[in-house]
Amino acid sequence: MQTWIPAEGSPAPISLRPAPRADDIREQLERVVSSPEFPGVGRAAAFLRYVVSETLEDRGNRIKAYSIAIEVFGRDAGFTQDDPVVRIEAGRLRRSLERYYLVAGQHDPVRIDIPKGGYIPTFTWSCPASVDIGHEEAGETSRSEVRSRRWWHARRILLPGVALAAVAISLYWIGTRPPAPSLERATSLSPDRPALVVAPFTNLGEGPEAQLYTAGLTEELMTILPRFKEIKVFGRETSKSLPADVGASEIRAEFGARYLLAGGVRISGKRLRVTARLLDTSDGEILWSENYDNDLASEDLFAIQTDVARKVATAIAQPYGVMAQVDSASPPPDDLGAYECTLRFYAYRSELSAEAHARVRDCLEAALARFPNYATAWAMLSIVYLDEDRYKFNPTPGQDAAIQRALDAARRATQIDPNNTRGLQALMTALFFDRQLAESLRVGEQALATNPNDTELMGEFGTRLAIAGQWQRGAALLDQAIALNPGSGGFYHGTRALAAYMLHDNHTAVLEIRQANMQKFPLFHVVAAIIYAEAGMMDDARREGQVFVSMRPDFLPNLVTELAMRNMQPEDRDRLIEGLRKAGMTVPDPDAIASTAVTSDLQPR
Fold first, then answer.
1. Residue 222: helix, strand or coil by DSSP?
2. Dihedral (C-alpha) 404, 408, 411, 413: value to the nearest 10 degrees?
3. Is residue 67 part of a domain?
4. Helix (H, G, I), strand (E, B), or coil: what is residue 171?
5. 322 lies in some domain
6. Which of 171, 186, 225, 369 is most open to solvent, judged by the fewest CB atoms within 10 Å of its CB?
7. Any idea which UniProt keywords this protein has (predicted)?
8. Minimal CA–CA distance to 125: which of 20, 7, 200?
9. Angle ∠(587,590,592) on CA atoms, nearest 5
10. What's the number of domains the chain is made of?
11. Buried residues in 381-413 as b, exposed as e (16+ CB within 10 A)
């Protein structure tokens, strides 16, 4: 019998739990076939019962297309492979199982799959690691308990009959290592997120080159899109089994997915055009469409394929992208409260106000009480906790230091899902403000390699690089993030304006600070004051300076500490002090600053 199988592309975890027993599997089989989310008519149930029963009776070697055709579908002994019934029904069964485990079966103990390339099922525990976090009564956990308790403890899922030695080894493992559930199974403990199905792109041209490109483009999209963890993407098996002209209503009926990505490829001579469109499956409305034209004579076919897939994925799936904008404007009717917190997080990042900060912090803490393995929410909460310290938003008395809570939450996110882009972004940012600069930038490079198309990460990493003194590279990354996502947060325009100031590009600095326009964010006003003063716009500079001092009267008296916390290099610090003075603000004299810097007890925390 098959034991646990890791998700594609993930490292094989160490699992001390034995494979599911026959009774466990039979109970799961009945749970699946009796569910309203599994087809109640047709051949799916009979097909599934047959292959499971044969496997449990140690007759897996008999499970062939011929035996299934005869014993399940009633074909006569003359059945040949020319009859596609078994292949077609197997594809439908795989899609039905995938839908079941995405919807009704998210928390089922046993998973039944039929891997492509055969008809023998596999049986796995839905979460092979024998640990989880949170209390059984997580829904009743208070906000302060969520903040202060340890992020993990043993979950009561050890089965009767496991040898005492195995229990002892498991307890040792739990006590000495953080939990590492597989990426595939960790998502089953997350709340619902908007689901997307990718239909194979249609070949609108002629010849083998066009067909090769359509297949390759679809495959590239299936590689890039799942890296955006705020959405769910149905797998390759589902995509490959669909006709290119599948209707939006069919996707809604069969999979329950809210979005369908479809398109076509046309090659004429040396010109190639890709058309992509995103549809709302509830009514078939085209929410977004775009054409991408390329010259085959000047570019490599595979390079074009990768570039187009990257642009499509970035446009629809990233934070502030099309799907997020649609969901913000008209949330789906399902109970997606936890997902709504992620939308609130990005709205907060665009505004950066104390009021929005308090709302999103409460929302994320409540979501994590319900879904303690939601890696993306831990990452977002890490950033929100950090803002209590760096922006002085709603500090929480009586709790661990904000920086420590931010580090703990970021590490929890990356333990649940080591490749979660938002988790790596949060860890990079928390390490940066903990003054672990080299490690912070190392994690940033890792995050960018994990998902080079995520503009939220791109902008944050560009900001960290710039503030740490790499102004040119930081500005380049910020330019790329803004170009790919013009609707992104004004925060990145503000940092890009500061980078332009540091690079002595006053024209760009003024343009970018005007686009930032974050009136509720105190640091926007101080950057604006410095830039306007440098550009000779003294009335604007004095006005912005006065607003900043009224919002953050503590900042200038503690200027050295504030800049040290942000890893500002000495020469950049001096240039900022010069700009503050030019804008008419009072700052400590240079000798006092130098003395404070030498005697400061600021140490890496």
1. helix
2. -130
3. yes
4. helix
5. yes
6. 171
7. Membrane, Transmembrane, Transmembrane helix
8. 20
9. 85
10. 2
11. bbbbbbbbbbbebbebeeeeebbebbbbbbbbb
| φ and ψ at residue 279, rounded to 5 degrees | -115, 145
Q: Which amino acid is at 101?
A: Y
CA distance 222 to 213: 14
Task: Give the number of other CB atoms < 10 A from CB of residue 34.
Answer: 10
Phi-psi region of 201 (alpha: psi -120 to 50; beta: other; left: phi over 0): beta
* Residue 201 and residue 121 in one domain: no
What's the angle, vertex CA 247, arms to CA 306 and CA 284, rounded to 5? 90
Cα 47 off chain centre by: 36
DSSP sequence for 399-448:
SS-HHHHHHHHHHHHHHH-TT-HHHHHHHHHHHHHTT-HHHHHHHHHHHH
Domain end among 92, 125, 158: 125
pLDDT in tens, 354-408: 999 999 999 999 888 888 888 888 999 999 999 999 999 999 988 889 999 999 9
**Which CATH number covers residue 245?**
3.40.50.10610
Return the exposure string of 449-486: e unless at least 16 CB atoms fall within 10 Å of the residue's CB, then b: ebbebbbbbbbbbbbbbbbbbbbeebbebbbebbebbe
**Residues above pLDDT 70, as percent of the chain:** 77
- The values of phi and psi at residue 399, to 5°, are -110, 170
Report CA 109 to chain centroid distance, whole Å: 25
Query: Would residue 245 count as lying in a domain?
Result: yes
Structure-block tokens of residue 206: 């002629």
Q: Is the pTM above the cut of 0.85?
A: no
Domain hosting residue 212, numbered range: 195-329
Q: How confident is the model at residue 592 (pLDDT cuts 50, 70, 90)?
A: low
Domain limit, last residue, from 300, 329, 358: 329
CB atoms within 10 A of CB 279: 24
Measured between its terminal Cα atoms, the distance across the chain in Å is 50
**Are the C-beta atoms of 221 and 261 separated by less than 8 Å?**
yes
Q: What is the pLDDT of residues 447-506, one digit of tens each?
A: 999 888 888 889 999 999 999 999 999 999 999 888 876 655 678 899 999 999 999 999
Q: Do 199 and 324 lie in a common domain? A: yes
Task: Single out the residue of 102, 101, 83 nearest to residue 28, CA to CA.
Answer: 101
Residue 102 phi/psi, 5-degree rounding, is -80, -25
Q: Identify the CA nearest to 132 among candidates 338, 372, 345, 365.
A: 372
| Three-state DSSP class for residue 122 | strand
Dist. CA 16–CA 129, nearest whole Å: 8
Which residues lie across from 203 on neighbouring strands? 265
> How do beta strands 110-113 and 122-125 pair?
antiparallel
Instruction: Measure the CA–CA gap between 389 and 191, rounded to whole angstroms.
Output: 29
CB 492 within 8 A of CB 459: yes
- Which tokens hold the place of 302? 């595979």
